[in-house]
């Protein structure tokens, strides 16, 4: 790692290099785009203003791999979700990424909702998700015996699955770096110039970056980046917060499939799903707000969520809560993805990737590359590609603590070993702060929320994070 | 994978005061193979990081700090012939006393004739309290602060706010003060502190404002704690307190994960294991003692509980128990009674815990009643506060032939 907060896998060229493509933003979309362009043979720099990838919208989502059964017919979103789904299914084994084949039910709780099930089924069939079908409440309750008896019926979607929301984007960017991409953290693009051939991108503190082409994957700030560098934006972001409750691992035994509600115009609604880490997840809410950075939870909303969940699954009453968190969807004035090509400016914007970006990212990356190749020089795809093997954090697969030689278990609730923590610091894109370490290992994410492991973790990570877990009380500030 | 199998008479999960006391007692009673397993690098449990006296007055007739007490407990057990295995994490409890254990050398299976669960309590962290705000750095619990400072010489912040006024909150202030921190306030939503007089003198003495009738509304700050917003519950007035950390204290909860994920019955009221007066769980091969039974008792209490249950396990091994099949009565508590331990009683037995332990959820005054549909078995006027122990002699209840369950409630 260089002092610039950059990652380059030891193949950095001169500072004056002109990259083929600069990807602005290291959310799931930026990570997938960087990977796609590297595989197609481009020299790529990914610029991320945070200290780790997944600092924005991609930090917190429901982690569902969507089939697109309910996406608007004929939309770009549908195309990307289905292409993304397909590519994930093709590559996940190569990366050792996990998948939890849960399937899903859209459950009707009222007569009105029940009446809407046939239209959900027919939309799914129109979207070529053929195995979607309506089931009776008897069938539903046989498959989900802990669901409230008041369920009236459901649509079964056998193809909806659950994935690891952090390891997958990390694997995309890791592959990009292994095959030559460069990454700069703490690099907030604030302005730039285009001379007809090359962009010079500027940030407040870091060296300029030159690239022939820019892909705006700035998520919650996508409109602002367009305004700052192109002088205008075709859309405006209206952050939509989603709050979540994570129940104790004991709760994950209560459900098999993902329980989806009958959706409304605005949102996919409140979901109950097992997570890949063995918990039960409840959420998200849908709350409009102006702030693009503050994802706070509120006691009131979380209590409302819990009440709704307990109505659906009565034995959740009294189940301990492990965590609460919130994520911000980069929603815009339209439901559709906001992808714009600016041919005169060597620029593509992938904005407003609202609530299906985790699934769609691989498909969207392929779509953006297709648009790019209409506008730019021909690239030669890589012939020999390196693929990283990701450490497994999924509860249903072999975890590190099950294999000897781990030295010690540091985080007892999530069973995170010292070996895993060391590996997170030694990996291609190492953890640089506590959030980064949490996403790479799950340390402190369990039920005690670091009651037992803070001390050991602060000791093990001392001087390895940008913000240490401990402070100096001797009076002098840290060097 | 070829798992190693270890066979023992008694396996004890948790090397805290309860687990170590039980182990020592079992060896003194002549039980041969007694092993204590703990996932930490050192035995001793919570007292390892309670860097203050008084511990051990009744056990060792001297006034010790927590770490000294922890060392004495371990040494005493080893002297008695107990095997203490650290960095051994129990990951699964199986029927009849079979344990899955993770060790740095690989997974092993332990087959024990009896198992004692003594995994203690922890504090409720911010998330489970559903507190409003983002997730900045600088939010912790007393236990985490204590272990950072007393075990590693580190601190997470300089000017924290302390939430809550149970006894442990005052430990928090002591720890902060020893570490050179300057707590900016201690916050309690009630109109008086939860711990007993004269605890309120400590913040006064340390110059920490004690804010009663004050509710935490929100934690401010995105990457690091910048302050808290609080509300006066009487006047509705809100104010902002600048700070760089928040310590959530108390609201103890038994560390009962293992049991929750197993076949054993967990009592939703206490959050701990469902036991009879001998500390026996719903699977007769398992027993429980110490703070895993309920939030929360002192180290000394947990120690004595461990010693007692250790003795009853020895009895049980000697007589190859018949107690299992004796009829039991289940006690069911109703709000505002928070919990009752033990939850089951075998009638007509002598021995075992002498008292039922009760707690209430809020300050109450009224008639405490234990009855079934036909008959009142016990009745007494009480006036008490949350976190105060209420004891009822079990022998007073000793006449309930044929009863299956008893209500424990309060007539206010
Ligand atoms: C509550 C919720 C639930 C969801 N559930 C699911 C789900 O179950 N399945 C699914 O497929 N999808 C789901 N999603 C959607 C998915 O999370 C988003 O679509 C996706 O994260 C959007 O990613 P992004 O890369 O476009 O944006 P972001 O993740 O916001 O990435 C943008 C990045 O750009 C950086 N950046 C911004 N400005 C600059 C700048 N000027 N210079 C440099 N860097 C900059 C930011 O720091 C950020 O890291 C959910 C989303 C939410 C919020
Ligand atoms: C922050 C805090 C401060 C306290 N301060 C005081 C005080 O000042 N004075 C006082 O008298 N009491 C205090 N207490 C109460 C305390 O609970 C008791 O002092 C006492 O430690 C309880 O003993 P125990 O043996 O039941 O459990 P503990 O002392 O908690 O011991 C439990 C042991 O079980 C181990 N364990 C848990 N799960 C597993 C597993 N799966 N596998 C292997 N090992 C496992 C743990 O590592 C731990 O060592 C405090 C409690 C807390 C939480």
Task: Please describe the structure with a list of short key phrases separated by commas or semicolons.
heterodimer, A: 479 residues, alpha+beta, FAD/NAD(P)-binding domain, D-Amino Acid Oxidase, Chain A, domain 2, 9-stranded mixed beta sheet, 5-stranded antiparallel beta sheet, 11 helices, 27% helix, globular, B: 412 residues, alpha/beta, 7-stranded mixed beta sheet, 5-stranded parallel beta sheet, 8 helices, 25 strands, 20% helix, binds flavin-adenine dinucleotide
Structure description:
The complex is a heterodimer of chains A (479) and B (412). Chain A has 479 residues and is an alpha+beta fold. Chain A folds into three domains: 168 residues, 3-Layer(bba) Sandwich (FAD/NAD(P)-binding domain), CATH 3.50.50; 156 residues, D-Amino Acid Oxidase, subunit A, domain 2 (D-Amino Acid Oxidase, Chain A, domain 2, 2-Layer Sandwich); 89 residues, no CATH class. In chain A, the strands form five sheets. In chain A, strands 1, 2, 3, 10, 11, 12, 13, 20 and 21 form a nine-stranded mixed β-sheet that branches. In chain A, strands 14, 16, 17, 18 and 19 form a five-stranded antiparallel β-sheet that branches. Chain B has 412 residues and is an alpha/beta fold. Chain B has three domains: 196 residues, FAD/NAD(P)-binding domain, CATH 3.50.50; 123 residues, FAD/NAD(P)-binding domain (3-Layer(bba) Sandwich), CATH 3.50.50; 87 residues. In chain B, helix 1 runs parallel beside helix 8 and helix 4 runs parallel beside helix 5. In chain B, the strands form six sheets. In chain B, strands 1, 2, 3, 4, 5, 6 and 17 form a seven-stranded mixed β-sheet that branches. Chain B has a five-stranded parallel β-sheet with strand order 8-15-9-10-11. Chains A and B meet through helix 7, strand 19 and helix 11 of A and helix 4 of B. The site of one flavin-adenine dinucleotide has 42 residues of chain A, from helix 1, strand 19 and helix 8.
